[in-house]
Amino acid sequence: MNLLSRKATCNAHGENSSYFLGWQEYEKNPFDETRNPDGIIQMGLAENQLSFNLLESWLANNPDAAGFKRDGESIFRELALFQDYHGLPAFKKALVEFMAEIRGYKVSFDPNNLVLTAGATSANETLTFCLAEPGEALLIPTPYYPGFDRDLKWRTGVEIVPIHCTSSNSFQITESALEKAFLEAQKRNLRVKGVLVTNPSNPLGTTMSRNELNLLISFIIEKGIHLISDEIYSGTVFNSPGFISIMEVLADRKCDIEVWNRVHTVYSLSKDLGLPGFRVGAIYSNDNRVVTAATKMSSFGLVSSQTQYLLSVLLSDNKFTSNYIFENQRRIKERHEMLVSGLRNAGIRCLKSNAGLFCWVDMRHLLKSKTLEAEMELWKKILYEVRLNISPGSSCHCTEPGWFRVCFANMSEETLNLAMKRMKDFVDTNTTNGKNQSHQNFTRNSRRKLLSKWVFRLSFHNREPKER
Ligand SMILES: Cc1ncc(COP(=O)(O)O)c(C=O)c1O
């Protein structure tokens, strides 16, 4: 007899996705420049390691902040006892100012409307708990961050209905795609409670246009539903057109309070500051009832008081924040260009992007056929033979086979160059006169070289990742 709960034993966590399986394979054979130069390079992790030295030098110059001290006096006991789930006022004030600074001060945030959470993961789940019942639905444009299946569905029992976007218009949201998703939810007898978008997008690396944002606002007004804007990558925008927050469009349209109350923003310091381990996220809502309920729920995922204290001092240092935002974006842009030109050199094109820590890469021409099976086959080749862990589009619910998300900010320049070299060698071996050879030809040519890997690959086949 099973003595565990259905929640504990159900499959809805999503860890069977190729997105997470790629991470597991990477863990077994991780690349290291000296110890394991033939290992798998992790390009499936949207981490920002480009500006650590800026944070480290600030810490070296401000030892009191990390040493539990204020004006030279220890505040250890104060921090050790602090557990108010409303959060440290000084931190909330510093965080909303940082959020406004990233948005070029075009919008401002009231700290009273902010709820602190353990990362955007917790923020998105908490908001879902506040807005929807089990069996109700959120609409999300595809391709989307694979973690949403875990964050929004698993514990809440809420369903996701995809808004299908395609390469025909660079994956932008259209009115007809929104209407189709709404109809699809109705057909499945699911009441739609809201739309959730990620702006800038993970995995596309693009910012939403003013048109798209206006379209979304009109849609949620017409349907009487909520809008969640996950703006976790707002500080990574490195090229024009710049970032437009949903808050800016609401203000421009002079929306009435009833609409403002239905639009909620999610933020986190995991990407812009590169601190996913610190677990700092936030919900921003104009609806008092959402703020009150989410604050109570935040007891299950608070941000520790020493983290709040350290970051309140860091983010209150305006000279630091303005330099950090500028320099971090410059470094992201540089890396992005390295990836784009490295792939171009291998005959591979990326969707034009201006934000994020990754590119949305078009490898349709390398597929054996235009199917999701062929996409998985190519993904496995790239994982086991080229030894790069990238994320297949199907793990992001993209319906067009052949797109992959490739991350570039979690490794050194040398590692990125090596990854590009491996990719070029792979394409060159796989291509004759610019035309993609069949899978069989490639396998025959490389068979001897790959013989030692068959045992490993066969054991992987026994645990075939589930397609979505
Ligand atoms: C769009 C999006 N939302 C939320 C998260 C989760 O972030 P956090 O580490 O703050 O929980 C991620 C992480 O990759 C993400 O890409």
CATH class of the largest domain: Alpha Beta
Weakly predicted, low-confidence segments: 438-468
Number of strands: 17
CATH architecture annotation name of the largest domain: 3-Layer(aba) Sandwich
Bound molecules: pyridoxal-5'-phosphate
The share of residues in extended strands comes to 5-15%
What is the strand arrangement across the widest sheet? 4-10-9-8-7-5-6
Structural class call reads alpha/beta
CA-to-CA gap between the ends?
Answer: 30 Å
Instruction: Give a quick account of the main beta sheet: strands, pairing sense, barrel closure.
Output: 7 strands, mixed
Q: What's the CATH H-level superfamily name of the largest domain?
A: Type I PLP-dependent aspartate aminotransferase-like (Major domain)
Query: What is the tally of helical segments?
Result: 19
Radius of gyration: 23 Å
Family: Belongs to the class-I pyridoxal-phosphate-dependent aminotransferase family.
GO molecular function, one term: transaminase activity
Protein name: 1-aminocyclopropane-1-carboxylate synthase
Cofactor: pyridoxal 5'-phosphate
